[in-house]
């Protein structure tokens, strides 16, 4: 009986949290973040202020909670193609195993909201930092050059991937998700040695 009671309480808590999150995101679609009040969030969610403060300290805390949850799910999608592999050869990865861009597509409206200018948090930087931390914690690259500082390789690749994702969102997902996955694989394994400056007088 005790276990059933705990399950009921957990589900009730999750239900109220989900309702508050949904109401907050609906408000964000209609007005800038700084104009949203906790009173209208709870009114739309059909809860009271006490329930809100039982879960969140402020609307800023609620926003960061949503961002953290979203980035955690993003990391799971990045990990998906290789989570059972002991060694990863990016040249041999199946492009269809990369579900990251499908995740962004499924949550299109959410990411467009979180990247909108009136949110006043640097979501762009948080995406890059989350990917960088994943790479540092879970990737051990086999380097062909001993002069490369591994720290900067992590930064370069993580924030490069983040920039691709952000540009794709800003361009309203105009490139197909599978093509984005293909481009990431190509870029992660691309080596260039020379270039020609354009428009030399």
What is the structure about, briefly put?
With 201 residues, this protein is mostly helical.
Features of the shown structure:
elongated, 64% helix, 201 residues, mainly alpha, 9 helices
The class by helix and strand makeup works out as mainly alpha
The dominant shape is elongated
Give the topology string: H per helix, E per strand: HHHHHHHHH
For the termini, the CA-CA separation is: 83 Å
Strand residue content: under 5%
Number of strands: 0
Tell me about the largest β-sheet.
none
* Share of residues in helices: 55-70%
* Mean model confidence by pLDDT: 90
**Number of discrete helical segments:** 9
Radius of gyration: 21 Å
Unreliable runs: none
Itemize the secondary structure elements and their pairings:
Elements: H1 2-30, H2 38-45, H3 49-55, H4 59-79, H5 100-106, H6 108-114, H7 123-138, H8 150-170, H9 177-188
